[in-house]
Inverse folding.
């Protein structure tokens, strides 16, 4: 039985709201159409039904996006082993690359799928047809290097087109990719490659950052010395002939461009994976011990990403999404999977948002006609130090939605983004969840009022609540952020460490995911996250997080 807090679960149209949906947003909303199609009066009604019957909600949500399984599942949700080991789409066939790359390439080959901009000003566009051809070539090359279904492939790359291609090629083969942050040193890279027993590493010679070349090849080489299972390193020469003097080990190191050049041919069909086959092993930082490898499956993370982007951000076919991130953080794979499954165009950028000038980000928005811009509060704090002139110098009329994640807001940068960038007309979709979640627990939508620094409520379909130490719902005070029902995208445990996964999230309250965040729901239904629950202090007897 689902026990929840009394009162509104979503922010109401109170004086606290800074943004309210206009008729234009309501009319365009994919979520609003979904409410009508499933016979729900409003989000409260939808959430009540979703919490009572998660299988109904997620089946309806995925079908609404036009996503098909082949074969169809024999059972939508199996919790016979307990909610912590919930399995979705039992017996279903699903490969997200077939759904997000192969099928759209056949139907709309000339539509732009990916736009890349380098810090040096280089720009490259790939249509859906071109993206499929590149992914097929990379898949052939990886297969020739011995990658098979279920093998792990490390992706230690900057934000360049080849990174997206490599990620998708791994999925096409039914293998498992491990994204690694491009700024890590050799020990962090090695620990991840060794832990997942990677067979192949895809890396680059380097990338631009603030006008300087950041070397990746030497970092990768040092890491490979402590990653004995890696047989080959597939290297993208970002700097071409300029990097010919980079260290090279014949027999192990393989150059990307000439390898893919001979790997042409007929289209490569995506492997017919099961919806519960692993597709990504992504590591999260732990306070002690080895890194935690969250296991995600074909029918989990990609579908949760797409549903969140559709329902919270109202991303639709023809929109242009740019989320300022790295492929090593979950928002990189999230943006790739979600944008492709929804038929949007994805923009990726190699450099920093204020180089060579403080208007670089806004120039990028203008030139690529970005409709959905995602950025962290920290980045906004840095950009606002340059004032509003760099923003006002560029046309931002293409923007419809602003997104943020990664940390709590404080008021000044939130208002600056709302006023100076959004002109008080754009919603800021605050979004919080985690790597193990595959996206958001709480968020905003384009059909609900938004208060500064807040979340409008649970992401649709997420049975989120704020509870005390005994699991009782609380309002108006800080409690633990918890989830009372399973969802697609919930990690299928930590890599070869099931006990650590159960201890991390399921050990405190029976049958309830306790996320480790302090949260609060105010009297108007707006939600706030104040920090990690293991980073708290007491002031006047009250528990508060670092943000407070």
């Amino acid at each position: 039985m689902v026990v929840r807090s009394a009162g509104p679960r979503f922010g109401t149209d109170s004086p606290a709201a800074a943004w309210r949906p206009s008729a234009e947003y309501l009319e365009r909303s994919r979520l609003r159409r979904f409410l009508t199609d499933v016979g729900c009066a409003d989000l409260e009604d939808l959430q009540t039904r979703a919490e009572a019957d998660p299988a109904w909600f997620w089946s309806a949500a995925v079908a609404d996006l036009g996503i098909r399984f082949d074969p169809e599942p024999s059972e939508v949700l199996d919790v016979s082993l307990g909610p912590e080991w919930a399995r979705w789409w039992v017996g279903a066939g699903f490969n997200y690359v077939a759904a997000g790359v192969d099928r759209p390439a056949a139907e709309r080959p000339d539509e732009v799928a990916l736009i890349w901009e380098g810090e040096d000003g280089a720009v490259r566009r790939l249509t859906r047809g071109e993206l499929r051809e590149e992914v097929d070539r990379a898949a052939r090359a990886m297969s020739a290097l011995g990658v098979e279904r279920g093998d792990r492939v490390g992706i230690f790359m900057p934000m360049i087109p080849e990174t997206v291609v490599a990620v998708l090629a791994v999925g096409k083969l039914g293998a498992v990719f491990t994204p690694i942050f491009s700024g890590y040193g050799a020990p962090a890279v090695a620990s991840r490659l060794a832990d997942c027993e990677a067979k192949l590493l895809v890396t680059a010679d380097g990338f631009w950052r603030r006008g300087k070349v950041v070397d990746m090849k030497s970092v990768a080489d040092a890491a490979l010395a402590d990653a004995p299972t890696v047989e080959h390193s597939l290297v993208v020469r970002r700097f071409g002939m300029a990097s010919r003097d980079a260290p090279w080990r014949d027999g192990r190191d393989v150059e990307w461009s000439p390898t893919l050049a001979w790997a042409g041919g007929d289209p490569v069909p995506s492997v017919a994976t099961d919806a519960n086959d692993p597709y990504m092993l992504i590591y999260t930082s732990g306070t002690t011990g080895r890194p935690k490898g969250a296991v995600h499956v074909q029918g989990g993370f990609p579908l949760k990403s797409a549903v969140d982007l559709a329902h919270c951000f109202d991303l639709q076919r023809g929109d242009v999404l740019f989320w300022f991130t790295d492929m090593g953080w979950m928002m990189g794979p999230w943006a790739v999977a979600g944008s492709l499954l929804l038929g949007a165009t994805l923009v990726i950028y190699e450099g920093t948002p204020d180089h060579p000038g403080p208007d670089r980000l806004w120039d990028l928005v203008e030139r690529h006609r970005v409709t959905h811009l995602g950025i962290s509060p920290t980045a906004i704090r840095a950009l606002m130090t340059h004032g509003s002139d760099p923003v006002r110098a560029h046309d931002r009329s293409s923007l419809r939605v602003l997104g943020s994640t990664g940390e709590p807001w404080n008021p000044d940068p939130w208002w600056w983004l709302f006023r100076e960038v959004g002109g008080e007309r754009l919603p800021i979709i605050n979004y919080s969840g985690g790597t193990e979640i595959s996206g958001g627990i709480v968020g905003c939508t384009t059909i609900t009022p938004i208060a500064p620094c807040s979340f409008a409520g649970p992401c649709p379909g997420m049975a989120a609540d704020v509870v005390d130490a005994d699991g009782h719902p609380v309002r108006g005070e800080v409690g633990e952020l918890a989830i009372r029902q399973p969802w697609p995208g919930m990690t299928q445990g930590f890599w070869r460490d099931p006990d650590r996964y159960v201890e991390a999230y399921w050990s405190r309250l029976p049958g309830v995911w306790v996320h480790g965040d302090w949260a609060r729901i105010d009297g108007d239904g707006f939600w706030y996250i104040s920090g990690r629950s293991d980073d708290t202090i007491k002031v006047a007897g009250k528990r508060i997080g670092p943000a407070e």
